[in-house]
Amino acid sequence: MKRTPYFILLVLFSGLSITQSAAQKFKPLFNGKNLNGWYSFLKNKGKDNDSNQVFTVNDGLLKITGQDFGYIVTEKSFTDFHLVVEFKWGEKKYPPRENAVRDNGICYYVVATDKVWPRSVECQIQEGDCGDFWLIDSVTAMIDGVQQGPTKNTRVKKKTDNEKPTGEWNRVEVIAIKGKCTHIVNGVVVNEATDVSLRAGRILIQSEGAETYYRKIEIKEL
Q1: Is residue 67 helix, strand or coil?
Q2: pTM of the prediction?
Q3: Nearest to 135 by CA among 100, 109, 115
Q4: What are the DSSP calls for 87-107, one per residue?
Q5: Which of 105, 110, 120, 125 could pair covalently with 202 via S-S, beta carbons 3.0-4.6 A apart?
Q6: Do the beta carbons of residue 163 and residue 126 sit within 8 Å?
Q7: Is the Cα torsion angle 140, 199, 129, 113 positive or negative in sign?
Q8: What is the number of other CB atoms lying within 10 angstroms of the CB of residue 96?
Q9: What is the DSSP letter of 114?
Q10: pLDDT one-digit tens code per residue, 24-78
Q11: What are the chain's domains?
Q12: Helices (H), the chain
């Protein structure tokens, strides 16, 4: 029987180990069963007082009604990371946005002060605007060679639109490393910023007047 040299086996097993390790680095922030690791905050009700069940989990999906403005936010803080979410729009909309486009959002590097909305960087989730930057509460960044902020809230539009039609699932990714933040929608880079003034904080999912579903929220710390 022909023997495979030991060093080849070592390389093969090392490569397999590295591949498995890389695949295991993504960890769920949303477990599909409950909101362990998160807490809720609603503008008119405060922390963990979700009497209208704005945030519920059923059949592996996080449902956000949008009825009350607020959010769920991670208890843990993150620095350098790759975040992946998959979302789709529902049907219902609520005042004061019942006649506006559907709106949601992923905020990251969120400071530890609960209000609507806390200081953070936002990857906009909104019909037609997925991937826009919102620099909330005096955050600054360099985008396309232009210094953005500080203002109360600074919006920088995405470079291209790659959102799927309403009702279909979308994959949104945020890669944040040492002040460089990249927004990816369905595999296409739609916005990038450097020299972002926040470098660590929690991750937040908004409720902002529109029914929204999430089936995946996972993170890889870099």
Answers
A1: coil
A2: 0.87
A3: 109
A4: EEEEEEE-TTSTTS--EEEEE
A5: 110
A6: no
A7: negative
A8: 8
A9: -
A10: 599 999 999 999 999 999 999 999 999 999 999 999 999 999 999 999 999 999 9
A11: 27-221 (2.60.120.560)
A12: 6-24
